[in-house]
Amino acid sequence: MTAPGAKPRLAVWKFSSCDGCQLTLLDREDELLAVADAVDIGYFLEATSAQVEGPYDVSLVEGSITTPHDVERIQEVRAASKVLITIGACATAGGIQGLRNFADVDEFVSVVYASPSFIDTLATSTAIADHVPVDLELRGCPIDGRQLLEVVGALLAGRKPVVSGQSVCVECKAAGNVCVLVAHGTPCLGPVTHAGCGALCPSYHRGCYGCFGPSESSMPESLAPALAAVGMDESDQGRFLRTFNAWAEPFRSASTVRLPDPHRRQP
Amino acid sequence: MSDDTTRTIKVEALARVEGEGAMHVEIRDGALVGVELQIYEPPRFFEAFLRGRRHTEPPDITARICGICPVAYQMSACEAIEDACGVVVDGPLRALRRLLYCGEWIESHTLHVYMLHAPDFLGYHGAIEMAADHRERVEQGLALKKVGNQIVEVLGGRAIHPLNVRVGGFYRVPTRRELQPVLDGLLRVREIAEGTVRWVGAFDMPDLTYDHELVALSRPDEYAVVGGNVVSSSGLDIPVSAFLDEFAEEHVARSNALHAYRSDGTRYLVGPMARFALGYDRLSESARAAAVEVGVGPDDRNPFRSIVVRAVEVLHAVDEAIGLIEAYEPPDQPAVPVEPRAGVGHGVSEAPRGLLYHRYTLDDEGFITDAVIVPPTSQNQPSIEADLFRLVEQNLDLDDDALRHVCEQSIRNHDPCISCATHFLDLTVDRG
Ligand code: SF4
Ligand code: SF4
User: Which of A41, A45, A96 lies closest to B13 in CB terms?
Assistant: First the structure.
């Protein structure tokens, strides 16, 4: 695809999201210009109005699929991309806007908008991989900048990126933190959450709230007794699992067992 | 362009703004009939799914409305919930909130000035293209932005969606030692911040004046960011709790974003131009001196000068952050307890793009029963359209490409953040 000597062509796409994951790239202040020198930026609306036609060697996709138009557009992006990497909880799990999946979206529309008939939205917010094949998923809300560079760097060098599928607990131990769950009785999702952030929350005396989504062998059920022991009732546990990665298994089913009907308490 | 009677230009989504949208220009018999902004960022329903969550949750959840200004969402949310629960966060904790906010202003404004807006004035597609000719300049901008991010990282845990913010304060407050490298960084980039004002102050600008009513938060003792009254250039001065009596949101068919108006139906403008005009005498001395040097004053009403005002605000935020760190004494507790109770709370803070209002209704156990969020972009949209109307009217003789460029630039003057789905640009010009 790439002519010998030519730079690989990079594209960054946005679906339903907060722009935070693509901003992670612009926030690599020390490496940004070097990355920009190493690639040919074909499409990246947050950074440049210049646009080059595909095909693209690497596409980074942010955001979830929430409109009929998105469903078509992601097919085009996939067809134009050699390697497709999803970045962040929105793209890999439907994001915070995936909370609609547990509720009645028409009711949501009527809460936010006076004229619901103007709104064209799907009843669900779903991950990119639910629609097209994805080559690599980067977790996090937002993704971790160093991890993003590792992946882009590895692809440029033609090697396999190193991304751990273990839990935040592993990183927390490596960081030498005291366990906030055991030592302070602070509810923490670290044991069932995907590594990648470097165990940030426990380092700030806070329990992990799951922004990287489920780890590879995540078992929320096995954590339930520990959460109950620090005072979380069933519905609190359900809401704890039901945030930025609510639609990702097994957070989805474990939260649904605890919040059978709407995810919220009836007002 | 199609046939003789109808000319339509289809433009891809607008670059260098946050989010997605489109713009439609209608011209009949050579006269401008209408300009519409269409925000097509899909709705994300934050106000709906906040219902039923605990009073402790909005800072984490609403941060995800916008990756560019998460601190603003966290601060307005905290203020509103504390208000509902009858708690005032003051002293060193409030100082830390301001410091965190200074970091976001520096980071977000610098991103906009260097990466999104300056390329318009210098004729580049973006900062990366600009770096080919102005490498050192772009590197300086990145260094300045980095220090803004560094503040948010140290205090917030990470630059995007800080995790160390909670209702009542923080999970852990920094030690003086942890803030030292931040202070060193600020002192290092102070000169860059001054240089930025001079650099953008020398850009060629169209000579235009607009008469939007300006609205901002105001405090007698400081350039207001958190806490204060809502004031306007026409003399409005109200407590935050009266916000929804004076301002109302309306839903228009062409856009997923709600449009806000004064309750009498007139448009208004929030953001750096408004803050600057209404808080000029509370800017840091050096920020005011820099403004004087490049000739922007509180009476400035040319939206193209907003880039200069942003640079002045960055300098102010650098000065203020330096002062806050130098005076910092760690508080005894990282947060004050906030016990839930039934009630309604209002919170306003100054996001980089302008005033951001939250209102929550809580039941007696602290569960949210209703949430209202009025982001800056929805408030500015009618004014952005008014700017565009005038600009297009004056430039009808331009060809479509040139016209599109002027319009895009005019929209970027307001640094709209369309992620607020509430979010943004396809331009069509219908010259039928
Ligand atoms: S995953 Fe989080 S940070 Fe990334 S785009 Fe979605 S909401 Fe924003
Ligand atoms: S500790 Fe958990 S919630 Fe905190 S940043 Fe890491 S993954 Fe996200």
Answer: A45
Closest CA to A87 of A26, A35, A36: A26
Any bridge partners for residue B258, and if so which?
B251
Cα B400 to the center of its chain, rounded Å? 30
Whether A70 and B145 lie within 8 Å, measured CB to CB: no
Matching residue, tokens 């970045």 = A87
Contact of B115 with B412, CB cutoff 8 Å:
no
pLDDT more than 90, % of chain B: 66
The secondary structure of A143-203, three-state, reads: CCHHHHHHHHHHHHHCCCCCCCCCEHHHHHHHCCCCCHHHHHCCCCCHHHEECCCCCHHHH
Residue A49 has its nearest CB partner, among B60, B125, B139, at B125
* Residue of A204, A209, A132, A212 lying closest to A164 (CA atoms): A212
What are the C-alpha distances in Å from B47 to residues B59, B97, B359, B373, B374? Answer: 13, 24, 10, 7, 10
pLDDT > 70: what percent of chain B? Answer: 87
Please state, in angstroms and rounded to a whole number, the distance separating the CA atoms of residues B108 and B117.
12
Query: At residue A74, what is the residue type?
Result: I
Position B429: which residue type?
V
Residue listed under structure tokens 């779903």? A126
- The answer to whether residues B405 and B360 touch, using CB atoms and an 8 Å cutoff, is no
Is the pTM above the cut of 0.90? yes
pLDDT digits (tens, 9 = 90+) for A21-66: 999 999 999 999 999 999 999 998 888 888 888 899 999 999 999 9
| CB-CB neighbors (< 8 A) of A20 in chain B | 64, 66-68, 70, 160-161
- Asked whether the beta carbons of B145 and B151 are under 8 A apart, the reply is no
Q: Is the CB of A143 under 6 A from ligand 2?
A: no
Percent composition of chain B: helix, strand, coil (DSSP 3-state, to 5):
45, 20, 35
Rounded to the nearest 10°, the torsion over CA B62, B64, B65, B69 is 100
Query: Considering only CA atoms, which of B78, B35, B42, B97 is closest in space to residue B320?
Result: B97
| Contact indicator for B367, B54 with CB cutoff of 8 Å | yes
Write down the H helix ranges in B241-375.
Answer: 243-246, 272-279, 285-294, 306-326
pLDDT in tens, A58-116: 999 999 999 898 999 999 999 999 999 999 999 999 999 999 999 887 777 777 665 55
Q: What is the ipTM of this complex?
A: 0.94
In angstroms and rounded to an integer, the radius of gyration of the C-alpha atoms of chain A is 20
**Residues 6 or more apart whose Cβ sits within 8 Å of residue B228:** B217, B218, B219, B240, B348
Beta bridge partners of B355: B350
Neighbours of B9 (CB within 10 A): 18
CA distance B191 to B204: 23
Which one has a higher pLDDT value, B14 or B90? B90
Give CA angle at B129 (B128, B134), nearest 5°.
85
- For helices A220-229 and A251-258, give the axis angle rounded to 10 degrees: 50
Q: Alpha-carbon Rg of chain B, whole angstroms? A: 21
CB contact (8 A) between residue B42 and residue A66: yes
- At residue B320, what are phi and psi to the nearest 5 degrees? -65, -40
Sign of the alpha-carbon dihedral angle for B277, B280, B282, B288: positive
Smallest CA-to-CA distance from B65 within A21, A2, A19 is with A19
Angle at B299 between CA B296 and CA B300, to 5 degrees: 50
CB count in 10 Å sphere of residue A255: 22
Residues of B in contact with A197 (CB under 8 A): 158
Q: In angstroms, rounded to a whole number, what is the distance separating the alpha carbons of residues A58 and A68? A: 25
